[in-house]
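PROTEIN DESIGN WORKSHEET
SECTION A - STRUCTURE
LENGTH: 265
C-ALPHA CELLS:
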C-alpha cells in the first residue's frame, strides 16, 4: 500500500499539542492515557511553537487539543474532563456533585495560590521586581519564603492523604491526577529538603505515582513534531495502564529534576 493510500486509510484522531515536562500538559496526557482515547501527539518546542498550533489556539500555550470536527479545547482541565467523559475506567470523575465540588476546590487552590508560590520558589529570578534583591542572599530568602508558604498547603494535602492514601478517598481521582504533576515539580526543586519534611503520606503518594505504569507511559520521550512527519499515536496501542496504590515510603532524593511548564507557556 502506498503512503498516500495508507494515510487516507488511517482514522482521523484528535491532535494533542504537548510539552513533556509541562505539568498542565502532563495532567492532560494522564487523563487521555487512562481513558484509552487515542490521539495524535505533537510534541512541541516552547521557543519555536509550530504555526499549526498557533492557528488552532492563539493563546500559544500547551496543552491544546484539536478535535476531528475542528473544535479546540485549550485548557488542561477541560481536556481531562473531555477524555474521562469518553471513558473513565478508574472512576476519576466523582458520581456526586458534592464530590466534584470538593475536587474542584482542591484543584483551584493548586492552580491558584500554590502555583504562584511554586513558581516563585522554583524560578525566583523571574520575580526580581518583587524581591528587589541585588545578591543571591536576597534571592534565596525570597525563594525560601515562598517555599514555606507552599509547604503550608502541602501539609493540608498530607492531612487528606493520611485518611485514605488518596486526596478524596480510597482511590485515585481527578484531583489527584490534576495536582500530582505540580507537587512533583515542587518536590524536585530541592529533593533532599522535600524528603526531610514531616509529610510521609505525601511522599508515598508522589512516589507511588512516579513508579507506576501510567506515569511512565505519559513521560515517554518523543522528538519535536514537524509538519509532514508520520503521526505519533498516543497512548501507544500496547499500553497496559493501571493505577497502583501509593507505594511504601521512599526518598525521592537523587531523582532527575522536573522541567518548567505551565498553561502560561
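SECTION B - SEQUENCE
RESIDUE ASSIGNMENT:
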Amino acid at each position: 500500500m502506498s503512503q498516500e493510500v495508507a494515510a487516507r486509510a488511517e482514522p482521523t484522531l484528535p491532535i494533542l499539542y504537548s510539552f513533556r515536562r509541562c505539568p498542565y500538559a502532563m495532567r492532560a496526557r494522564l487523563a487521555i492515557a487512562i481513558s484509552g482515547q487515542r490521539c495524535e501527539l505533537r510534541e512541541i518546542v516552547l521557543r519555536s511553537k509550530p504555526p499549526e498550533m498557533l492557528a488552532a489556539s492563539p493563546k500559544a500555550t500547551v496543552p491544546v487539543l484539536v478535535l476531528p470536527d475542528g473544535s479546540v479545547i485549550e485548557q488542561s482541565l477541560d481536556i481531562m474532563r473531555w477524555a474521562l467523559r469518553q471513558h473513565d475506567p478508574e472512576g476519576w470523575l466523582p458520581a456526586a456533585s458534592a464530590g466534584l465540588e470538593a475536587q474542584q476546590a482542591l484543584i483551584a487552590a493548586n492552580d491558584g495560590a500554590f502555583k504562584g508560590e511554586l513558581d516563585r520558589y522554583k524560578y525566583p529570578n523571574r520575580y526580581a521586581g518583587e524581591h528587589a534583591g541585588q545578591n543571591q542572599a536576597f534571592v534565596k530568602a525570597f525563594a525560601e519564603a515562598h517555599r514555606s508558604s507552599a509547604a503550608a498547603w502541602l501539609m493540608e494535602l498530607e492531612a487528606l492523604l493520611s485518611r485514605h492514601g488518596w486526596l478524596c478517598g480510597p482511590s485515585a481521582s481527578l484531583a489527584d491526577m490534576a495536582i500530582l504533576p505540580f507537587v512533583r515539580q515542587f518536590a524536585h526543586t530541592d529533593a533532599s529538603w522535600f524528603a526531610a519534611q514531616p509529610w510521609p503520606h505525601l511522599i508515598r503518594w508522589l512516589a507511588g505515582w512516579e513508579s507506576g505504569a501510567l506515569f511512565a507511559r505519559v513521560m515517554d520521550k518523543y522528538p519535536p513534531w514537524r509538519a509532514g512527519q508520520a503521526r505519533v499515536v498516543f497512548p501507544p496501542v500496547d499500553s497496559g495502564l493501571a493505577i497502583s496504590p501509593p507505594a511504601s515510603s521512599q526518598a525521592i532524593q537523587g531523582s532527575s529534576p522536573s522541567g518548567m511548564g505551565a498553561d502560561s507557556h
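SECTION C - NOTES
The domain at 1-92+167-265 is CATH 3.40.30.10 (Glutaredoxin).
The CA atoms of residues 14 and 69 lie 9 Å apart.
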